[in-house]
Design goal:
heterodimer, A: about 1000 residues, alpha/beta, five-stranded mixed beta sheet, B: elongated, membrane (chain B), transmembrane (chain B), transmembrane helix (chain B)
């Protein structure tokens, strides 16, 4: 009897425990429903629409099938690299190859066979097989284009495959990479190029094999990754390798020896040596440039899944290169002023509990990239500002441009030659434009495209010195790419630039708001010129100033401004007066006289020191630790309406672009306060359904190389009866296609082509329609502050104007297809080191003229309806909580109206939700089920009771929801929806399973308990 | 010798269950204090209470059983312990899922990985505690 009692007790425990598991799993499943559905390919809800004759699909694809869609992406990928590959050196017309030479290719360097085609994380290449647009690597592309490669070398490198492998352990899931990888944020770079000895040991005849394949192409690769970094100088290199490598972005002896081996072989076989750079972070290549044995250098970036087709076309001459560098290629990257403060600088009083970890002082001010190199060069020519001092010199001698820069920003060669003539420049401040006409003539023998780069040089005056306003000696004002120009033909290119890009931010200048901080134009002479890069441009300007340099003064136009101007840009396009908003980003605001910012008035005296081992003051600690959890009673909360029964749905507002339309207010009144609190608090990887207004779930996607989060068919409509013109059948071979295939943003930038950027926006828009994914975090508008940020591949350039031009073109084009394309990350995500918590310090002038200028046009001109904020702090305040940045600049000055998500922040306190909502953040990344209990479990203060006492918060909540739903209403997320649309919850198989388990275990528990009790009763009897 | 004879296999299993449950509780609390989780999830008092009560109930069952014999009323305790431990386990896992996704990707660094490793060990120990709770419930703490 006792034995039975034990068994029934045990079985009752077992079944009751399993019943508990099945019951408790419910809320967990609800919390991650979007991601579970993504993983399992299930759907938990459906928007059901009554049949109607009305066309509910506002946005139309340009394609009638997935095959057409994928073909267009593949074609664009090829052309992106044709125009985004930069030819840096081409001695003796080594390129293009003759037909015969294409049959004699020796590929050297393991990156030829294992190239870097995307980032290791973020913009990773999606390799597609079995689709209508399978991705290819370099060898496959060459093969497809009819090249013939040295198979002995191919075998050699393939036999060494295991030596190239890098394993990344993702908790049992071992990720294997065979291309070179970038270091983690706490790692160093290790070269994997095989040594000559290693190659000899595998095949002692490998050099001889190149006699018959004497076109020797050496690929040097450097990878990029999110959440990774290169560190400047030897600190960033694995010293144990002992490869004489002085910088992770410089060459190792094994790479050096390989190039030299090719050069030596050339002496015997009479061939040619081409070096192909497979990188997104500007490398140190001066020794390759100066190696007379190297005939050609081309920079192909990380070209994605189809870009190597374009590279092959460049090699064969099928395409004529027209790419230009988006970054300065310096001799020694670590010698730039920005690099003096790039690293891991932890506070001495760091407090991990509140994400107080590190700081980074951008003491270089505005002088990043070419703005430093070309300005310092100009000042050495002009003999001012101690520019020829030794600080920052690579030689230890007086600073000399030729010793510091290998290839300047904007530089690139073609197989033909062009002559550009700046015909006219018209400055119209009332219209805020600078209009230039440039005649471009093809003076060579083959057809090609050219890039017109319009530069300006603005006055640097005593006023600037006195008020600490810095001026770059030359800056890109705008750019355009020509059409294909036949030899001997000309094209006149008209550029209409934004005149505000000439203006400088003066934090001391009075303004229309009655405070300080304003855009100014100094009185004096403004120079305009064109050139193949910033260096040629500055030389033209210097020549026009009668300096003895190799410049073309005839290609310079001037404009005189008689009086100091602080009014032309004192209000923004939407009429908002500008004023200082980012003074708290200056460390001197917190710790007086700590930072000396670099000034061209005295390069030597203001050269940046490294700001490390800093101790945050109590005030700074208090600011950084503040979670803004206090919700104070204010105003008249009862004046804010919730839960009204106005009979509207979001579909009533489909395509209503006027956000002041009173119907928006009527619709928003239907929201319940609980919905507002839940939806601002718990988001995750999508917007969620809002039942009171029938707002749909919109899926978020990363990242800049295409929709790479989900396969094409994941959320696609397969029901042809819906009237959806973009239905994908269940048996469509392209359903599993993933779009993370485009060249990285650096290559898109190198095209200097707004047309190609626009085509990319269209491709994204079309894909969005077919994939039914409306949100794309796909335009990285952070700048390449230094070459060392391993995430530079997700950003276009070191220059803001190029960034803005390419980013705005993509966003604007995407609008036509209803896709919400977001610039990210706002702002100053300048390093991946300690990114959750790092305090970025800078001057407001640097902030506004560099990185913010890269985003501003995306909002003002392209009308972006989505933005992502950053992990980092702006000064001591997290970006979410920074009212100056998000509310006053983004929303008020620039007029942003749309959904805004934080980056993938998992720390609720760091989200600063109270301030985030105040500043217009509409989505956060914490997850939880659709209840107030779930929200309050994360933020106990984010409650109905607390919110109900603050009119300000209630208003902010509704405003955030308005912004988000305004964006959705003007996107393809509304396609297929009408006012009859309602939400139906669907039971997935796993919902049914859980329900079944609950019932089953419930019954069994009762049964076992009953049997137990029955046994006891029998025993008693 | 007489006392020893009265002890059942369940006693040993129950003692192990107590130890493992306490270990799970300690590991959970320690994990909640790590850099990553102290900020992201904090401490869920419900989990602490469930594991603590489960451990206390097991101890009570052992003591009362040894002193008073295997009273039927005590049989509710393993059932309650199973329910409490099962709930704690699921809540523990649920609170770490987002972190697993984030740390394995966006926030992958040595410190966070160490914190995540601690979480996974804690979850495994809690799962083991549940298994022991269930197994021990099939055995008598003391023989009749």
């Amino acid at each position: 009897m006792s034995r039975k009692r034990n068994i029934w007790r045990g079985l009752t425990t077992l079944t009751a425990s399993l019943l508990t598991v099945s019951v408790a799993a419910g809320p967990v499943v609800d919390s991650y429903r979007t991601d579970i559905d993504k993983f399992l390919g299930t759907k938990s809800s459906a928007m059901v629409t009554d049949s109607t004759d009305e066309d509910l699909y506002t946005y139309k694809s340009d394609y009638s099938s997935t095959t057409e869609l994928l073909d267009s992406i593949e074609d664009l990928g090829e052309r992106m690299s044709e125009e985004g590959t930069v030819l840096l050196k081409n001695e003796n017309n080594a390129l293009p190859l003759t037909k015969d030479e294409t049959q004699k290719l020796s590929l050297l360097g393991f990156s030829s066979y294992y190239p870097v085609q995307g980032g290791d994380m973020g913009s990773s290449l999606n390799e597609n097989e079995g689709t209508d647009a399978d991705t290819v690597d370099f060898v496959e592309a060459l093969d497809a284009k009819g090249f013939k490669i040295n198979e002995d070398l191919q075998k050699l490198y393939k036999s060494l495959e295991s030596e190239f492998k890098t394993e990344v352990n993702m908790w049992g899931n071992i990720m294997e990479y065979y291309h070179i990888t970038a270091p983690a944020t706490d790692g160093v770079f290790a070269s994997k190029e095989p040594s000559q000895e290693k190659m000899d040991s595998v095949d002692s005849q490998w050099k001889e094999s190149m006699d018959d394949y004497n076109v020797m192409l050496v690929t040097i690769g450097r990878s990029s990754t999110e959440n990774g970094t290169y560190l400047p100088g030897v600190d960033g290199v694995d010293a144990s390798q002992n490869l004489n490598q002085t910088d992770p972005l410089g060459l190792s002896d094994d790479e050096r020896d390989l190039i030299n081996a090719a050069v030596e072989a050339k002496e015997n076989n009479g061939g040619k040596v081409i070096v192909m750079l497979n990188n997104a972070n500007a490398m140190e290549i001066d020794e390759i440039k100066n190696n007379d044995g190297v005939d050609a250098i081309m920079e192909v970036g990380l070209p994605g899944g189809y870009g190597f087709y374009g590279v092959a076309d460049i090699l064969s001459g099928e395409a004529n290169p027209s790419g230009h560098l988006t970054d300065t290629y310096a001799v020694t990257n670590a010698n730039s002023p920005a690099a003096q403060n790039f690293g891991n600088y932890e506070w001495t009083n760091a407090d991990p509990a509140v994400n107080i970890n590190a700081e980074e002082v951008e003491a270089e001010g505005i002088y990043t990239g070419y703005k430093y190199y070309e300005t310092r060069y100009a000042d050495t020519v002009l003999g001012q500002g101690n520019a020829d001092a030794t600080v920052g010199s690579s030689t230890g001698k007086a600073w000399d441009y030729d010793d510091e820069v290998s290839y300047p920003f904007g530089y690139g060669l073609s197989y033909t030659t062009f002559e550009q003539t700046l015909k006219s420049v018209d400055v119209d401040l009332s219209d805020r434009t600078v209009t230039a006409e440039v005649e471009v003539k093809n003076t060579g023998d083959v057809a090609g495209k050219d890039v017109v780069q319009l530069y300006t040089s603005v006055p640097y005056t005593d006023y600037d010195v006195e008020n600490k306003v810095e001026k770059s000696a030359v800056q890109l004002l705008d750019y355009e790419k020509t059409d294909m120009i036949e030899p001997g033909e000309s094209q006149t290119v008209t550029i209409t630039a934004d005149a505000q890009d000439m203006a400088s931010w003066d934090s001391t200048c009075s303004n229309e708001a009655g405070t300080t901080g304003n855009w100014i134009l100094d009185n004096g002479t403004y120079y305009f010129t064109v050139g193949n890069g910033a260096h040629e441009a500055v030389n033209n300007v210097l020549a026009a100033q009668d300096q003895d340099v190799e410049g073309n003064k005839d290609n310079v136009q001037t404009w005189e401004l008689g009086d100091f101007d602080s009014s032309s840009f004192a209000v923004t396009l939407n009429g908002t007066p500008v004023e200082n908003q980012l003074q708290d980003a200056d460390l001197n605001n917190w710790m007086e006289d700590t930072v000396t910012y670099l000034s061209r008035n005295d390069w030597e005296g203001t050269w940046p020191e490294t700001y490390k081992d800093l101790t945050a003051t109590d005030e700074m600690i208090s600011t950084m630790a503040d979670d803004y959890s206090d919700i104070e009673a204010n105003g008249d909360p009862s004046s804010v309406t919730f839960g009204a029964d106005n009979g509207m749905t979001l579909a009533n507002m489909k395509g209503v672009e006027d956000i002041t339309d009173e119907r928006w207010s009527t619709l928003m009144d239907q929201l319940t306060l609980e919905e507002c609190l839940i939806r601002t608090g718990l988001g995750g990887t999508s917007t969620k359904v809002i039942e009171s207004i029938t707002s749909p779930e919109a899926i978020q996607n990363d990242g800049p190389n295409g929709f790479n989060s989900y396969p094409l068919g994941q959320y696609a409509n397969s029901n042809a009866s819906t009237g959806d013109p973009c239905v994908i059948a269940e048996d469509d071979p392209n359903r599993d296609y993933k779009m993370g295939v485009m060249a990285v943003e650096t290559v898109i930038g190198q095209t200097f082509s707004k047309q190609l950027a626009e085509e990319w926006g269209k491709a994204v828009g079309n894909y969005s329609l077919w994939a039914n994914t409306a949100i794309w975090w796909g335009v990285g508008t952070n700048l390449h502050r230094t070459p060392y940020n391993a995430r530079n591949h997700e950003y276009f350039s070191e220059d803001a104007v190029l960034t803005a031009g390419q980013g705005a073109a993509i966003i604007k084009a995407g609008h036509e297809y209803g896709v919400l394309i977001a610039p990210k990350h706002l702002a100053f995500n300048d390093t991946e080191i300690n990114r959750t918590g790092i305090a970025e310090f800078m001057t407001e002038q640097a902030a506004r003229e560099n990185e913010l200028r890269g985003t501003q046009s995306c909002i003002e001109d392209a009308n972006a309806l989505a933005v992502m904020t950053t992990y980092n702090r702006v000064g001591c305040v997290t970006s979410n909580a920074h009212t100056g940045l998000l509310l006053n600049i983004l929303h008020k000055e620039w007029g942003f109206k749309g959904l805004m998500s934080e980056d993938f922040i998992q720390d609720p306190a760091y989200t600063k939700i109270h301030m985030a909502v105040h500043n217009g953040v509409t989505m956060t990344c914490n997850t939880g089920d659709n209840t107030m209990a779930a929200v309050e479990a994360v933020w106990p203060y984010w409650s109905v009771e607390n919110a109900s006492q603050s009119e300000e918060l209630l208003t902010d909540l509704k405003q955030a929801m308005l912004y988000q739903n305004y964006a959705l209403a003007n996107s393809n997320a509304m396609d297929g929806m009408s006012t009859s649309t309602h939400i139906e919850k669907l039971n997935t198989w796993y919902d049914n399973l859980i329900t079944g388990l609950r019932i089953g275990f419930g019954v069994l528990t009762v049964l076992c308990a009953a049997m137990y009790l029955l046994g006891l009763k029998k025993k008693e009897q | 010798m007489t006392e020893k004879k009265k002890m059942g296999a369940g006693l040993v299993l129950s003692v192990i269950t107590v130890l493992v449950t306490v270990a799970g509780l300690v590991l959970y609390m320690m994990n909640c204090k790590t850099n990553y989780f102290v900020k992201t999830t904090g401490t869920d008092n419900t989990i602490v209470a469930c594991l603590a009560v489960a451990a206390i109930l097991e101890i009570v069952m052992i003591i009362v059983s040894v002193k008073m014999g295997a009273k039927p009323v005590l049989d509710i305790i393993p059932v309650a312990c199973g329910v409490l431990t099962a709930y704690a386990l699921i809540a523990f896992v649920g609170s770490r899922i987002a972190a697993i996704g984030s740390i394995m990707t966006f926030e992958n660094n040595a410190q966070n990985m160490a914190d995540l490793k601690g979480a996974i060990i804690g979850m495994i120990v809690c799962a083991v505690a549940l298994i022991f709770t269930i197994i021990s419930s099939f055995f008598k703490v003391v023989k009749d």
